[in-house]
Amino acid sequence: MGVAAGIFVSWTPFIGVHFVMAFILSYLFAGNMVAAALGCAAFGNPLTYPFIWGTTWEIGHLLLSRKDTMNGQSVDLAALFHELHFTELWRPVLEPMLVGSIPPALLSSVVIYFATFYTVKGFQSRRRTRLLERARLRMAEPVQETV
Fold first, then answer.
1. Is the distance from CB of 50 to CB of 33 less than 8 angstroms?
2. Its pTM surpasses 0.70
3. Domain map of the chain by residue range?
4. Which of 9, 37, 107, 125 is the most buried (most CB within 10 A)?
5. What separation, in Å, do the N-terminal and C-terminal C-alpha atoms of the chain show?
6. What is the DSSP string of the chain?
7. What are the pLDDT digits (tens) for 67-115?
């Protein structure tokens, strides 16, 4: 569950609080917090963020039925972040990215949850079988007495 929480929050546009969000989700769903951190770091990184942002942007505009909300204008993100105009940043950037992040986040986190669950379950089963076989071999060995 922790890995799925890390994957889910990596789709959101709130960089800087992904680990905190993953820990909260992991705690709420009784997941492993270390696995949540690993899911965040493995999925949300500088190599994947451009693809994540582009995908969430397009899906968000599709879901919100927006064609071009900027009307040819540009947004100076550095100035908005520097001056902390969250209200001006919300409508053109964060809202479509947040709305657009939900479908791929749900899909990928569910797929990763089941893939991780069955992989770990198989690993634990093989490990248990190996340990039982070792125990049987030890029990079958004759006891050697030392004089």
1. no
2. yes
3. 2-121
4. 9
5. 55
6. -HHHHHHHHHTSS-TTSHHHHHHHHHHHTT--HHHHHHHHHHHSSTTTHHHHHHHHHHHHHHHTT-S-TTTT----HHHHHHHT-HHHHIIIIIHHHHHHHHHHHHHHHHHHHHHHHHHHHHHHHHHHHHHHHHHHHHHHSPPPPP-
7. 655 566 666 666 666 676 667 777 777 888 899 999 999 999 999 999 9
